[in-house]
């Protein structure tokens, strides 16, 4: 197709879509017709739901708690119409992440794995596999300590300190934190990288404890579709999801979407507010 219409070249976008660049406007409609005939969906431009960016998942990575690319497939099957038609108030960026390192980045709606229990340690393997000082240093809350178990050097976790982030698992696979029952999904809303209209923003938690239920993750799709339909009906033109939520207020966001609000949603962390750069303003 590229040889016929785009002089043999294609470009991969940051969200892994294929872009064809044509030299004449007269080639555009024949290209669209050919792609449609071959069964390729065309969209993701303008005020639509663009392709979901995701982390590596079970196929490529050694630490995931779920299959991010599988969740993307299930979601995009539901979002086919929103991808191919420019009917949203503004562009919508969705990301999925299979562990809490979140190499997939942020978006208007982010679907991230959420571990809820500390790691279970296989003490017979720690001395053979792990460099213990590196694992101790890796923990962001200093919850891991060296220990001797059955006469072998190992590690122990202070469960009162542990925040279940999973950072210890990559350098030390015997610290098993992935769990079919206790590794859940959390859905975050309102992240934005651009500096247009308002400053870049972090996401806020709107749903947690969502079942990690492969291969179609219906509970995740239901919540995301509920948020998107409410945003589509209620937002003003060119408002991003986070800007819409800030305008109507987060209490009304939960009322309109029907999502339950609990004490765990309250963002009371103030650390780092004084030195986090939250705009694209250049300082010298």
Question: What can be said about this structure in brief?
Answer:
The chain is an alpha+beta fold.
Textual characterization of the structure:
This protein has 284 residues and is α+β, with helices and mostly antiparallel strands. It has 3 domains: 2-38, no CATH class; 53-116 and 180-265, Sulfite Reductase Hemoprotein, domain 1; 121-163, Alpha-Beta Plaits. The protein is built from 10 helices and 11 strands. It has helices at 2-5, 28-38, 57-60, 68-78, 80-84, 123-129, 132-138, 218-234, 241-248, 250-257; strands at residues 11-12, 18-19, 53-54, 94-97, 109-115, 120-121, 144-149, 152-157, 175-176, 183-189, 204-210. The strands form 4 sheets. It has a 5-stranded mixed beta sheet with strand order 3-4-5-10-11, covered by helices on one side. The protein has a two-stranded antiparallel sheet with strand order 1-2. Strands 6-9 form a two-stranded antiparallel sheet. The longest helix has 17 residues, at 218-234. The mean pLDDT is 90.
Multimeric state: single chain
What count of domains describes the coordinates?
3
Rg of Cα set: 22 Å
What fraction of residues sit in β-strands?
15-25%
Q: Could you say which structural class the secondary elements and strand pairing correspond to?
A: alpha+beta
CATH architecture of the largest domain: 2-Layer Sandwich
End-to-end separation in angstroms reads 48 Å
Major sheet size, sense and barrel closure? 5 strands, mixed
State the CATH topology of the largest domain.
Answer: Sulfite Reductase Hemoprotein, domain 1
Query: Count the helices. How many?
Result: 10
* CATH domain class of the largest domain: Alpha Beta
Q: Going across the major beta sheet, what is the strand order? A: 3-4-5-10-11
Shape: globular
Number of strands: 11
Q: What is the string of SSEs from the N terminus onward?
A: HEEHEHHHEEEHHEEEEEHHH
Helix content: 25-40%
């Amino acid at each position: 197709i590229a040889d016929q219409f785009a002089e043999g070249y294609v470009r991969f976008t940051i969200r892994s879509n294929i872009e064809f660049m044509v030299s004449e406007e007269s080639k555009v409609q024949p290209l669209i017709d050919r792609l449609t005939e071959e069964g390729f969906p065309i969209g993701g431009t303008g005020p639509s739901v663009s392709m979901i960016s995701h982390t590596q998942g079970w196929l490529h990575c050694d630490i995931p708690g779920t299959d991010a690319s599988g969740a993307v497939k299930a979601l995009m099957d539901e979002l086919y119409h929103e991808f191919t038609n420019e009917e949203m108030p503004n562009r919508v960026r969705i990301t999925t992440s299979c562990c809490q390192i979140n190499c997939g980045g942020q978006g208007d709606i982010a679907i991230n794995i959420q571990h809820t229990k500390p790691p279970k340690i296989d003490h017979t393997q720690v001395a053979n596999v792990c460099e213990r000082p590196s694992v101790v240093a890796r923990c962001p809350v200093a919850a891991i300590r060296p220990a001797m178990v059955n006469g072998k050097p190992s590690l122990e976790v202070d469960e009162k300190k542990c925040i279940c982030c999973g950072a210890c698992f990559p350098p030390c696979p015997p610290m098993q934190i992935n769990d079919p029952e206790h590794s859940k999904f959390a859905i975050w809303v309102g992240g934005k990288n651009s500096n247009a209209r308002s400053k870049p923003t972090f996401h806020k938690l709107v749903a947690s404890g969502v079942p990690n239920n492969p291969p179609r993750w219906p509970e995740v799709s239901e919540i995301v579709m509920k948020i998107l339909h409410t945003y589509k009906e209620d937002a003003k033109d060119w408002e991003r999801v986070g800007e819409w939520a800030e305008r109507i207020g987060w209490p009304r966001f939960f009322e309109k979407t029907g999502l339950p609000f609990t004490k765990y949603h309250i963002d009371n962390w103030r650390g780092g507010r004084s030195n986090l750069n939250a705009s694209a303003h250049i300082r010298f």
